[in-house]
């Protein structure tokens, strides 16, 4: 049979493999384990009959679901801890000089602190959080991988977020939180990157939820300087744009507007007078309630 019509550009093939390795690395926290998962994923792909592969409309989605399912199975193994040491040549693309550099960059990008925190989650919570928050997979896709319903996966991801916040946060009073949040706003509106970076923990992380509806950053950003740069870029002053401090999830957060429309809602996790995590909601679907006529408790504060 002639399979020339199935040919895929090499750049697309490498991008696909890189994406799958990123998914597996976030899920398992080990380059060697990620490489093993992707090898098994492709073995399953080529284990399908020609007709079965032909019926798969989006191979990349099938591969991502399969890799996620394999990762979830490995997370549930009682001896999974033995798999977290990468060992010699254990990173993604081991044995390839360009791949080794890609592996090093990936491991620097993904904060070890955050990966350790992910280890505190149950396998289902970690899968739901990583696949939804980090890689922006749809609830239906996550549900297929995790083996739960869509609403259950949403709850798992929400629970994971709460546990990650609780793990890192040390109690701050509402007044302390409000002061830091308003100083963050001041740094953003005055475009003072140095001040903004000083308000963040060195290993701060920012998550950007675009929901596939806007061109947001697809993966979290780590490190105070990188987070500060990302926020400054996102919130750079333009005509008709404003940034206000107001209540977000019960504590002072930031709300960015373009004209009268809320374009981003930012919540801050603050510990010891500095920001540990930033959660930026840009998904228009999640901002619908913010774009209803404002109630008294939603009135913004410019201070």
UniProtKB/TrEMBL annotation:
Residues 79-98 are annotated as: Disordered. Gene3D superfamilies: Winged helix-like DNA-binding domain superfamily/Winged helix DNA-binding domain. One of its GO terms (molecular function) is sigma factor activity. This is RNA polymerase sigma factor. It comes from Streptomyces bingchenggensis (strain BCW-1). The gene is sig2.
